[in-house]
Amino acid sequence: MSLITRYLKCQVTSLQAQRGGLCRISIIDKNHFILLLLRISYLLVRATRRVALTLSLDSMLKVSYLPGRNYAPATPLRPVYVFSKLHSLSLITAVFIFLHAAQSEGLETVSSPPVYGYKVVGKYPHDKQAFTQGLFVEDGVLYEGTGLNGQSTLRKVRLETGEILKVHKLPQECFGEGITPSGNKIIQLTWRSNTGFVYDKDSFTLLGTFSYPTEGWGITYDGRQLIMSDGTANLYFLSPETFREIRKIEVSDDRGPVVRLNELEYVRGEIFANIWLTDRIARISPQTGRVTGWIDLKGLSPLKENEKTVKALNGIAYDARNDRLFVTGKLWPSIYEIKLVASK
Q1: Which of 75, 120, 244, 304 is most buried by its number of CB atoms within 10 A?
Q2: What is the DSSP letter of 27?
């Protein structure tokens, strides 16, 4: 049994290493799980082949170990070998051992997140020259951060008409990324400059800068902390005053870590994240990092398939006051207001 225990611990340790310290038995792990049970069952069967179950006519059930040599018990006993039953017992025991270890080692089962569709309920004009990297809406007005070196901006836009009401240009060397409001300020990231900008929300006056060690992709605000992505599976929670990292989580679903997290939006207690180069938005628990659902926006893009690499879906804005959700993409001609449709 000690051999099986050691083997099981090795498997648990291996899974923990693969999943960043937290093991999950998921759909993708089923083959591994079945193989593990078969291996444990095989070890148990090998052990039971060296055990003779003997039943005395005038005594209780006894188990005698026969370590490869003839063994003659003092009392004549009749050996009864029931390998088929022992095999079944071994498999059941293997399942029990694995589940017990899973519970004691902190493993948890993860089911596939539900997939939501969408219904377009509104369509608004969007600047086809805007390489959208960040988006939010407040008081019926749209704020947009755009990218590309020499073309990066922070904008205030009239939603209904697409009219640019105010614009601030970033330095030539900066590639603008995500934006978010934080009180009476706007925070804007840059891609590889390791620099974030802090503006007055009304005037776009630059109030200060801050630095971070990773790339900057998306950013949002949950009312207490800034939440930032860097293109990996990690989300970083920052202080809105000092911009220091408070904690970070790894985003994952039933298949493992979810990488290329891009533009972010905080929506009713969840983090919505564009996944770069896909038509999907992940709904993420800010407590655990687990994907609680997928929003499939396939068919929304007005562009051809060969254009989607550059003109990717990117940009989520949520109007909390009126419960409206907007999405767009880089260089897209339109912004769409959508309603989510539950999966069937």
Answers
A1: 120
A2: G
